[in-house]
Amino acid sequence: MKITKTNYALKESEVTEESLYLDRRQFIKKLGYGTVLLGTSIITPSLAKKSTKSLKEELTDYKSITQYNNFYEFGTNKLAPYENAHTLKTTPWNIIVEGECEKPGNYSLEKILKGMTIEERIYRFRCVEGWSMVIPWNGFSLASLLKRFQPTSKAKYVYFETLHDPENMPNQQQDHLEWPYIEGLRIDEAMNPLTLLATGLYGKDLPNQNGAPLRLVVPWKYGFKSIKSIAKIRFLETQLESSWQKANKVEYGFYSNVNPNVNHPRWSQSRERRIGKYRKRKTLMFNGYAEEVAHLYKGMDLKQNY
Amino acid sequence: MYIKEPYFTKVFKPFIFVLALVPVFILAWSFYSKNLGANPLEAMTHQTGDWALRFLLISLLVSPLKRLLGWNQLTRCRRILGLYAFFYASLHFITYLWLDQFFVWEDILHDIVNRPFITVGMLAYLLLIPLAITSAKFMIRLLKKKWIQLHKLAYVLPILGIVHYWWLVKSNIYEPVLYAVILLIIFIARFICTLKKNTIGQTCE
Ligand code: HEM
Question: Model pTM?
Answer without folding.
Answer: 0.84
